[in-house]
Amino acid sequence: MATSERAGVPTVSAEQSLWLEEEPGASWPALERDQRVDVVVVGGGITGVTTALLLKRGGASVALLEAARVASGVTGCTTAKVSALQSTVYSAIAGRHGAEGAAAYADASRAGVERVAALAAEEGIECDLQRRPAFTYAAADNDLKSIEREADAARAAGLDVVMTDEVELPYRVAGAARLDDQLEFHPVRYARGLAAAVDGDGSIVAEQTRALAVQEGSPCRVRTPGATITAEHVVIASHYPLLDRGVFFARLESQRSYCIAARARGPLPQAMSISAGEVTRSIRSYGDLLIVGGEGHITGASKATAERYETLERFARAHWDVEAVTHRWSAQDPVPYDHLPMIGRYTPRSSRLYVASGFMKWGLSGGTMAAILLNDLIAGRANRWAAHFNPNRLSVRSAPKLAQLNAKVGLELIGDRLRPAQANSPADVPTGQARVVRDRLGKTGVYRDPDGTLHAVSLRCTHLGCLLRFNTAERSWDCPCHGSRFDADGTVLEGPATKALERRHPIDRE
To answer: What is the bridge-based pairing of β-strands 272-276 and 321-336?
Structure first.
């Protein structure tokens, strides 16, 4: 960890999630031989592990495939709140889907919260799970009306939400909506505890096993680097759908958000809070640490992303006696164009392929409710939420938003090609920074790491060809069109892209 001084106070620039700092404990080997199971679940985050466990409990043999380590993706990079009260989501859903849509979402979210509590208890998972009240608050007087609308919409949807002006924060709020008995926990310990319950008795967990291709049929086939696994059903729970056949990239907008954890003197809030309005601040504590989240933006936004951590730190220091910032991390979430998650059959014609995505930054409750729904669908049972969350639904009310979303993609495709290069040669790239360099192959992205080594890649996203932008906070190349992200050497970090960037050799060029 690098340590710097800010106004006489040591600041630790820890580029790691609080939830991922400890050793992961048990690990599972990569898939190395062909196998057959009843269901393959692709993705080892909370959605995948919960789906796999519920299916196994129902009598199915399951293979859970994770490209890296279980819970090492977005599940390990959240604020770790499990709540049915989610900022101002109910007023947004009611506006697009009416009271019935909002009620279905409230019912599913509440079920997700309670299933997390139940599974932690049933499996004996030590994950620091606590019941806490959740607040959505107005940081300014002009935000109060939106809070009141949200409280009304949440109550109409069936949640026991009350209005209050008493929020456990060291600064004034204009008012807040409150929902009791929600959850906070350690998400990585929880997800890995579920994975441990999946493994064995004919079911397997395979880490370091990336799904390279999925063939839907009877049976389905999932190809990985080491083997092919066949199954009657396949669930794509990879956070962002990795198969383009459902055209999800045209209906999901990827957004990044940021978190810091800080050691602070004095009392810390024991409730979970999030502000409404243009500037979002998500607050909770974990032991002696304060967690502050916010600064969300569309993936690939031009503002220097490193500044977003600094903004969160300034906010924390303005309101708490911060001793040191100990962790910082970010996450990416696909947000559906019509404000409802996409859970169900992958395409209108799919009978064996399923998907879960679009949890609008509330994936711990959303992924759990998705697992409940998918378990019902695969078992042939009716589910009261299925029609509302159908991935292949059409919403006339949301058509303008869909058109706007895809118009933005068109502008990005054209606009980035018109922007000038940032450097004439790789020699002009400073240490620890990246530049767009024009060469005989077009535009090349060049990053010089702290050791002085140059990393050069094609800037064309391998998904649909948008030009990438450098994320200074994460040192990654991000796509402003559909949210794919790549490491400095071109390795895929997040989809929908599945193929690495072309590597180039800047040292050999003039």
So the answer is: unpaired
